[in-house]
Design a protein that fits this description.
By secondary structure, the chain is α+β, with helices and mostly antiparallel strands. Among the domains are: about 110 residues, no CATH class; about 130 residues; about 240 residues. It contains 22 helices and 24 strands. A ten-stranded antiparallel β-sheet has the order 12-13-8-5-4-3-2-1-20-21, with no helix packed on it. The chain has a six-stranded antiparallel β-sheet with strand order 6-7-14-11-10-9, with helices on one face. The protein has a five-stranded antiparallel β-sheet with strand order 15-16-17-18-19, with no helix packed on it. A hairpin with a 2-residue loop joins strand 16 and strand 17. Helix 5 packs parallel to helix 8. The longest helix is centred in the N-terminal third of the chain and has 22 residues. About 0% of the residues have low confidence.
Length: about 700
């Protein structure tokens, strides 16, 4: 770099010597660049969240309690100690104001609060004039709805995320439903009438549904974000125009695909595993501690966590799928029924290899007509959180500038490089590719997931996924044990940020080359010393969440660790010795009391930038714990920093970093069909999904609007 800089300076000096006028050209260029930089730096991002020191407004009644009473007037709930008749106009206003103020301030995740307010408005509409003769309650809600912004192209500066998959469908559903409430009223964000806004939102929603039908969910198996999709689609289905057969069928088809994904990953009461977007609590809390996907799972497989046939849950936005499943339409029919074939997958305990593929690599999107700035193109690119990658960075700059998005926190980093000369010269793709910058790893590209389920465990791995890149929220691998206990290994990005992603337990600093074959998973790490623009240095170790408190037995012996949970046995093999760190209350806090025994450890560290971890699973039906330990320790292992070989149970596993994975000399596939399981076979990018399980068959094609069961 120094040599190149010296050569550049020498060339400029030579040109100035040849022609003094060239000095003025150079000066003009630097002034031009300086003006662009100054303009960029002057664009301050709007806050995405309220100030941390802002006092929390405590209300006498909780909005979800009031909403429950409005939506279930013929029922009583012992958890709520008041009735609707106890509430005054002032009580309603006090309950609504925190949500209304949040939405007016345009803070991130306002769409989730708006979902609650929409349900509140629909459920209470017949009471508002009686409870609030002054019209204040109705006006408060209507003014809030009419002042909302629903998409990136509408006017107004804010730091709201409109564009990840779950936010997209939530905003589109809200724009459609609220627009239909007020067809003749004008929305201030774009000057459109409600009827116009609803028509536009319908087209965007149809596009979103068709994209999910063909490419699946980039937030694959996420038990933090897929429940939001369930909730928003359920809201959409219950309150949309049921005469619109195309829209109704496509919403139901998308719900089918979500239920199918849940069924493939479902085990021990949860879907915890390799996933597209997760936070710390999603990875390290047991199934019985989870409170998002549990709601969906309970509704699909008829578990017992419900009250009087209607779920009572906070926040209410996530309970909409459960509510819909208990409602009937005007003809007395269920709004939605989970297909029997899909339900049968979740209850089948036969050992199964399930391989799935979600999304596209960025190198593929141009051929699919998804590179550009149309609604369809932007919602796909931004939906996979692709902003700075070489394939799309110029497109991102163009879109950000066209719609003045620099003040949005999610796009604000563009201001440091928003130099028109460099954009004109087209150098940003070269810079992005050459520097391999941190944000490039955040984009959720094509994800191939390998799941192996038996009655005793589920092992799942994100196969060969961008080795060495950063990952803001992806989970590369996870072992799920009886009782919903999780074990996983990853490279932490930050050593002090425990509850966020990317941080200590969620996302990763540098991805391993990860592979799996049935009961064996291999992770090969080559951790760089730095990644450009990373928010933290690259830590020189990996760690495994291995909670002694939740396991029946754990033994750590040098570079081997062995554990038992019921009949399930598993081993970890490392390149260097494992080190169990003492119990740390701050690290355990994110488990919300799950890890309460301070005599039990839970973090197993392996140090070194070039290292590996091998998982092998077995059961006591096949061998005793002692025999398992002896056998694994006798297995041959070799590693030279790039090549890893392991021999176990008459199988030879070999992995070369960023190259092939072989079993008994046969190269293993790392790019899968869309669905490859005992229940469904669908080619990559195939749109016809035919599911057969439990003597039932179900057919889905979201693009064609096909949905039928036999």
């Amino acid at each position: 770099m120094c040599v190149k800089l010296a050569l550049l300076i020498a060339a400029i000096a030579l040109l100035i010597w040849v022609s003094p006028y060239f000095a003025f050209v150079i000066l003009g260029i630097f002034v031009w660049i300086g003006i662009d930089v100054a303009i960029g730096l002057s664009q301050k991002a709007r806050p995405s969240l309220p100030p941390k020191d802002r006092p929390v407004h405590e209300t006498k009644h909780h909005i979800n309690d009031v909403l429950w009473l409005l939506e279930n007037r013929d029922m009583t709930n012992p958890e709520i100690n008041f009735t609707l008749s106890d509430l005054t106009e002032e009580d309603f206003i006090e309950v609504l104001e925190p949500y209304v103020n949040y939405i007016h301030a345009r803070y991130d995740c306002l769409d989730f609060r708006a979902t609650c307010l929409y349900r509140f408005y629909v459920a209470g509409n017949d009471l508002f004039d009686e409870i609030s003769p002054s019209g204040k309650v109705r006006a408060l809600l209507e003014d809030t709805f009419l002042g909302m912004k629903f998409w990136l192209t509408e006017k107004g500066h804010d730091s709201v995320c409109y564009f990840s998959e779950n936010h997209e469908i939530t905003f589109f559903a809200l724009a459609y439903l609220i627009g239909r409430l007020f067809p003749d009223r004008v929305f201030t964000s774009d000057g459109r009438t409600g009827a116009e806004k609803a028509a536009e939102a319908r087209e965007r929603a149809i596009t979103w549904l068709e994209l999910r039908g063909k490419y699946g969910f980039s937030e694959f198996y996420s038990h933090n974000y897929l429940p939001i999709d369930f909730a928003s689609l359920s809201l959409f289905l219950v309150y949309c125009d049921h005469a619109d057969a195309e829209l109704v069928t496509k919403i139901k088809g998308a719900l089918d695909i979500l239920c199918l994904d849940y069924a493939h990953s479902y085990h021990f009461g949860t879907i915890i595993g390799a996933q597209g977007r997760a936070y710390a609590r999603n990875n390290i809390n047991c199934a019985f501690r989870e409170n998002t996907s549990d709601l969906v799972i309970d509704a699909i497989w008829n578990d017992t966590k419900k009250f009087g046939g209607i779920y009572y849950h906070k926040p209410s936005q996530l309970g909409m799928f459960q509510r819909m499943m208990n409602l009937k339409d005007e003809n007395g029919e269920p709004y939605y029924t989970v297909p029997a074939a899909i339900k049968a997958i979740g209850t089948d305990m036969t050992p199964a290899r399930i391989r799935t593929s979600f999304g596209l690599d960025l190198s593929e999107i141009d051929n699919q007509g998804l590179l550009g700035s149309s609604d369809r193109q932007i919602m796909f690119q931004f939906g996979m959180v692709a902003l700075s990658n070489p394939e799309i960075i110029n497109n991102s700059f163009d879109f950000v500038n066209e719609y003045s998005l620099i003040r949005n926190e999610f796009f604000s980093p563009f201001k440091y490089f928003n130099i028109s000369l460099l954009r004109f010269l087209g150098v940003f793709p070269l810079i992005s590719r050459g520097l391999k910058i941190y944000p490039n790893g955040v984009a959720i590209e094509r994800s191939n997931v390998y799941i192996y389920k038996t009655e005793d465990y589920k092992l799942s791995t994100l196969i060969d996924y961008k080795p060495g890149s950063a990952g803001a929220q992806q989970t590369t691998m996870a072992l799920l044990l009886p009782g919903g206990v999780t074990v996983f290994t990853h490279h932490p990005l930050k050593d002090k940020t425990f509850n966020s992603a990317p941080g200590f337990w969620g996302g990763y600093g540098a991805a391993p080359h990860a592979v799996q074959h049935e009961n064996v998973c291999m992770l090969l790490h080559r951790i760089p010393k730095m990644i450009v623009f990373s928010p933290a240095p690259m830590l020189p170790y990996t760690h495994t969440y291995l909670p002694e408190q939740l396991l029946d037995e754990v033994r750590v012996e040098g570079r081997y660790a062995f554990a038992r949970k019921g009949k399930t046995l598993f081993a970890l093999i490392g390149a260097t010795d494992f080190e169990y760190l003492p119990y740390n209350a701050e690290k355990a806090a994110v488990t919300e009391g799950l890890l309460s025994d301070e005599t039990k450890r839970f973090e197993l560290v392996q140090r070194g930038r070039e290292q590996f971890t091998i998982y092998e699973l077995s059961t006591s039906d096949k061998e005793s714990f002692e025999d398992f330990i002896s056998r694994v320790k006798a297995n041959a292992v070799s590693f030279d920093g790039k090549n890893l070989a392991y021999h176990s149970a008459d199988k030879d596993y070999a992995l070369t970093y960023d190259r092939d994975f072989t079993v008994n000399g046969e190269v293993q596939e790392t790019q899968f069909k869309r669905y490859d399981s005992p229940y469904v076979q669908t080619e990559y990018l195939g749109e016809d999904i035919v599911i057969t399980a439990g003597g039932h068959t179900h057919h889905i094609n979201v693009r064609e609007g096909v949905r039928e069961s036999k």
